[in-house]
Amino acid sequence: MMDTQLASLSQQTGTTLSQQNLTLATAESCTGGWVAQVVTHTAGSSTWFDRGFVTYANDAKVEMLGVNPETLAEFGAVSEETAAEMSAGALVNSNAMISLAITGVAGPAGGSSGKPVGTVCFAWCKLGQEPETEHQHFDGDRQTIRRQAVVHALEGLLARLK
User: In the chain, where are the structural domains located?
Assistant: First the structure.
């Protein structure tokens, strides 16, 4: 069951992308396809949602999205650099015109002093442009962190389309 906030974000995303004749691709790690699930909640989403990549493992990021192994080695999977390459790779490997990417530490384990549980990196990329990135820190349990990341990714997309 989709809650009202996520359903509203799905509708807003679809309306905005449709009005601008854009199609979306997603590249998700810690959210495991949740953004794709949200955006396809809206009927007719096939007109503005091209595809979603769930690249949880580093090998998947490299193989499916073309993330440079050196980026992963130097900055880690949870980094703005990796998120940027994920979003750019989603465009290269799809028919979409805009993408978003999410990679983070949802917990309860896996955090470090530099990247504690709740650290999530995002990127948004429009075809022909450089990705825009940012990172956030969310509090809560695994489900709460993942949900906040989904909301932030879609709100960030909408802000960039205004």
Answer: 27-141
